[in-house]
Amino acid sequence: MSTKAYSPRRPLDCTVAAKAFQKAFGAELKTRVVERGEPFALAQADTPHEIFHAMNIPVIANQWWSAYISAKQLSKRYFGALDEQGFPPNRCSYCSLGLACTLAADPATAPWGGLPRPTVLVARLTCECIQHVFSIWAEALGTDFFPLEAPAWINTLPEWYRHSRSRWEEVYDARRIDLLTAEMRELIALLERKTDRKFDLGELARLMERINEQEQLLAETAEIVGSARPCPISLNDQMTNTMIPQWHRGSDWAVAHARRFRDEVLERVRAGASGFNERVRLMWIGAGLWHDTSFYEALEERAGAVFVWSMYLPFSGAQYIRELQGRPLEALASRICSMNEVLHLPPWMSDWLVSEAERCAIDAAVVLVPPDNRLSQSGTLLAAEALRAAGVPTLMLSADMVNAATWSRDTAVGIVEDFLRREVAA
Ligand code: SF4
After folding, report:
1. Å from CA of 374 to ligand 1 middle
2. Could you tell me if 170 and 157 are in contact, meaning their C-beta atoms sit under 8 angstroms apart?
3. 47 three-state secondary structure
4. What pLDDT, in 10s, does the model give residues 151-199?
5. Reading across the β-sheet that carries 144-148, which strands appear in turn?
6. Mean pLDDT score, 50-59
7. 392-415 as b/e, with b when 16 or more CB fall inside 10 Å?
8. Are 184 and 176 in contact (CB under 8 A)?
9. Ligand 1 center from residue 146 Cα (angstroms)
């Protein structure tokens, strides 16, 4: 990885606070789970974390754990362990880095000395790899794997993001919602059997209302960020202040932090304190580049190319807010049963991306294309076609969100600069 340090914009104060909170959460979780033997869950990002929150069972999101390990520059070491153990070389990375860390069995280097045994592992079967990753992992950790189906859909409403709050049954298909609701009831039964915790539907309803409050604040922030000129905050500010509260959504801390984030962004816009001469407005499509987020700053500094948009912040309003209609469990199922689909699969993803590019006056888009990621879980080619058809020049960048083995920041920045010179008249 190249060493030249790019001076990032001064992060928002709430960005520093969010990172400190997540660090403290990690330490507290270790005490609760390792020292006190409390239950906890290990789950994919697109699973119903609200069930665990409503039952006061801490949950570690696999994608967060993977990004955390990657940011510590440990991915090469642990993927080496998978190579040694004969796993296929063309395996995907994002969901399997945590497994690699467990199978490397190296507490000396592993964050927290490695994960303790979870009460349960949970994942939606959104691609043909995930059940293998989680089955092997559950066996290695000596615990249960609870898979959730990911059925396709037949009927939906165009512009799902305008209807998801109130017409969620029409948007996400009532049979898909019923299936996930039934599966969540089974998951609750398993958790009540394996722990001393009881599920309370009233508690879930209260949590869902608090989440609506939080996501509304994040949706307002997305509007401010998308309409301000120049863009007031960095992509790191956006991702940090959206995703850390998402892992704790509906908690008092998360709602208060979302409000603080909005207010700090507003203050920066009012003060006109963006800090960079923005020449090109970019869209980042895909997961964050967790092993090297300085890539975003390098492009800002070298080319005045600012990443105004990534999926995390704008997704809050469109995908999370739900009118409960007296059915909190079904409303939750409608939030979860298409979380991966609307982010990564056509036609949901492409329609939304085009409307967001218009909303934020985007000049060009960069799509992260992780090698060996299964097509079944991401429709990047069709999304790029939809953006180009809408007049947004789009670059496919071959790189992995957590695996840094072949990453070179300067090479990638050079590729984007050439693309901008070629396709975007600054
Ligand atoms: S293909 Fe993607 S979603 Fe599926 S297991 Fe691999 S990284 Fe995860």
Report:
1. 6
2. yes
3. coil
4. 988 777 889 999 999 999 999 999 999 999 999 999 999 999 999 999 9
5. 59-61, 41-43, 120-124, 144-148
6. 96
7. bbbbebebbbbbbeebebeebbeb
8. no
9. 17
